[in-house]
Structure formats: C-alpha cells, structure tokens
Amino acid sequence: MAKWYDSTVIRIEDASATTKRFWLEIDEAGNFDFRAGQFITLDLPIGEKRLQRWRSYSIASAPDGSNVLELCIVHLEGGLASGYFFNDVKVGTALRFKDPDGMFVLPEKIEKDLVFVCTGTGVAPFRSMLLDLYGQNKPHRNIHLIFGTRYREGILYQKDFEKLVEKMPGFSYSVALSREETLPPGGQLFDTCKGYVHQVYLEKYATVRPDVQFYLCGWTKMIDEAVENLVAKLGYDRAQVKYELYG
Description:
Blueprint (H helix, E strand, L loop, with lengths): L3 E11 L4 E8 L12 E5 L6 H4 E5 L9 E7 L5 H8 L6 E8 L11 E7 L4 H12 L7 E7 L8 H10 L3 E7 L13 E4 L2 H8 L7 E7 L1 H15 L6 E5 L2
Parallel strand pairs: 7-8, 7-11, 8-9, 9-10, 11-12
Antiparallel strand pairs: 1-2, 1-6, 2-5, 3-4, 3-6
C-alpha cells in the first residue's frame, strides 16, 4: 500500500513569468527518502474523481536528508492543477501526496557520459540528479545538460547550473532559445544558440558513440522528435535513450 504524506507549503518564489517554485515541508520529522529524478503524486482539491485530483510533479531538489521538497510548476492556460497552484496555494497551504515513484533515475554506477535534454520544467529531475551527484561527491563521467525555452527570461535554475559548471568536473551546460531575437552577451558559463534543443545534440553527438546515455524530459512532441532523431536519424541504440513524458 502506498504511504501518504501531509505537507505544508513553506515558501513560494517566481522562477519566470509563467513558472513558480514551491517548497513543501513534510509534517513527519526526519529524512524523506527518494531517488533523484523521481516524482510525487499530489491529491489536489480540483475535482471529485481520482483522475481529476491526482497530479504528478518531478522533485526538483536533491535527496539531502531533509524533510523539505521543491517543485517547479508552470502555469498552463486552462490547467486545473497549475491554476490551483498559481491562484490558491499560499504559504501555509496544506498539500497531501503519496510515496515518490518513477524509474527515471541514474544507475548506481555511472559508466557512460550523460546527456540531459529538456525543455521548461522538464529540467526539474535533472537539477535533482546534478545536485545529488555534486552534493554527495558521487563518481561520474562527463555530463552535458541541454535546456530549451523560448526566451532568456524562461531559463530556469541558471545560477545553479553556472555554479556547477565552475565546480563540478566534467559538467557542461547549453541553452537553446527558440524565440529570442538576440542572444545574451558572451562571457557566460554556458553555450547559447537560437533555435531548439534538437540542433544542439544533433551537432555535438552526430557521431554515434556506445559510451553515452541520453535522458530526455519534457512534452510529448519534444520527446518523440528527439527519439526519432537519436535512434532513426543518427543510429543510436534505443537502449541508450531514456525519457520522462510531461503530458
């Protein structure tokens, strides 16, 4: 039987014009155990039936031994759950959720280079993974995060990833801006391009390598195109591509 937890929202911050960060403190004292990359399913007061009420969100924070979780949620037009979070949830709001779940996690022993490809709030599980690897000083090979959004104002967790570029051996960071007319000035700690995430990995990983593992997280359309590009177009083995769908 799944275990349910009661929590309280203790902090809310704007991450962009359409995205907010929410911190949940679990009422039970002690460590809340989960694996970086997993998600929680909340029971929200937005409908009568379970399928209407239950919504899943990736945990954006690392499993650091605390009882506080962070979620990163985008406001979707007409979305019942995101509308509830943006219009009704305040500091002090009680939220109920069940055990963390999901197999979108890293292996215990990392033996390949990792390429994380994501758009929007699909970056959340990768932030959790990266903070966990860095914070626990876990062995790893090269890791490349490729993040896509429309405008520079939509870049999520930029300072966190810039810090990791400086401090985490083997970590690199690329940003694709699909609708930005001008790119940010040079001298940054990450690469930027005008366009979509696909052009970044198509260029940098055009030569098929057996020692690389791709992780994809985002909306169905992006995932489908990425899988088609990596497997059918470039020729990577299907087992080298893992993904987490957002709708």
